[in-house]
Amino acid sequence: MPKINAPTVAEHRSARRTALLRATETLLLESGLAGVNPRTVCERANLTRSSFYDYFNSKDDLLVAVAIDAFEQWDREIEAELTGVERPMDRLRVLIEATMRMTADGKHDIAAPLRQADLAPTHIDDLMTLHDTLMRPLQRTIADLGVEQPERFAGLAQGVMSAGIQLVQHGLEPQAVADDVFRMLTVGLPLPE
Description:
Elements: H1 9-31, H2 38-45, H3 49-55, H4 59-82, H5 88-104, H6 111-115, H7 121-134, H8 136-144, H9 150-169, H10 174-186
Helix pairs in contact: 1-2, 1-4, 2-3, 4-5, 4-7, 5-8, 5-9, 5-10, 8-9, 9-10
């Protein structure tokens, strides 16, 4: 029986799977999709190449797992930021500020190479379902503000936030962008009087 490096087999397997996910994230950020294959991922994770297939059937399965992990981490961080924020307008501000700050911290960087992956349609459907779950805090907040058709307006608000994310990724100061996004969503364009 092979030696395990954890108190239980389940913890050992979890640690190895996590090592493969983190290695893939690093490779995606360093060299994009071209740098990700079972050999390079296992080398980066300090595992034998055959270990890859103990956890993933294909490169697509690995990329989907990385995306799911990124979505879940993002969701946990946003929910933690919103904990205890009661007023819907305050929640909207916190949600926008956290999104721009997390983007500036590089937590959205993994999305670009993953978007370039040519995944099977079922994988894309799974990822879109997960992405839709990330809209829940925004939809809840907009509904709590009393906006009719909150799902539709959450989609529009997400478009404004996505534009803000792009501005932060291009080097604009995250708090200034957050202020502009909040103003755009709550007041509209700052038109001259």
